[in-house]
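thread: overnight batch results

M.L. [08:02]
morning all. the overnight job finished for the chain we discussed friday. pasting input first so we're all looking at the same thing
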Amino acid sequence: MRLHKLSLKNCMMTALFDITTFLRNALAEDIGTGDITSAATIPADATATFVMRARQDLIVCGVKFIPELFALISPRVQVEIMLKDGALATKGATIARISGPARALLEGERTALNLVQHLSGIATVTHSYVDAIKGTHARIYDIRKTIPGMRQLQKYAVKCGGGENHRMGLYDAVLIKDNHIAVVGSVKAAIEAARTAAPKGMIVQVECDTLAQVAEAITAKPDIILLDNMDNETLRNAVALIKPHGIQTEASGNVSLETVRAIAETGVDRISIGKLTHSVMAVDIGLDEA
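M.L. [08:03]
and the structure it wrote out:
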């Protein structure tokens, strides 16, 4: 894994997401009516210090939420963040140092690790894709294939890994897909209807499966044409058709780390990848006694 510095510009949650409510619910499903084991074995006045440590090379994500998570358990917990979100952590690096009432630390341990391991997993795999196309014109984007209730956090993790966010939901951009076209009747009619009805300035994107659809889409001038499941030769031909018209191009469908470089080299502007969020593996991070 090649490591390089990342910028966290524009890595912000939107107003639609309440992180406090999310963290409170996450703690509630684990702690429930109380941590029976800690209450039975740990004296109420015992204190401890734990360190959150990377057990592999990774991109950190989610640690910014850990102070608030533990504050919801006890205001006496102190969290010192050693590596901020978006930072490169090599195996053995300390990500955060957490001190306070031992029972509180143990109550929050699993929720804290679950969150940071999952989000860091997304950031780390995103970084791998970004690194794989380094030097090309293309950029890596996520899509809406996210865990319900976690979309904003998962998309935040993509940004921490150096990727870009596609639309957040159905409300902030137009993306005309095959089923829309089937109902409306044609690519051109769907684009024209969207241009008429969508708020001024909203991005209008259309999905095309064939070069014939691409040619039809160009006549209606969408902002972006999504080239769905095309082989690389067809992608190159599509880009050649679209480029003179100043319309952005996006490749999507069955993208992997093995294929992403060749896809980027076709000249597309964007590559969208569902795997960044829908099936990523958590990275290995531990919380150990200091």
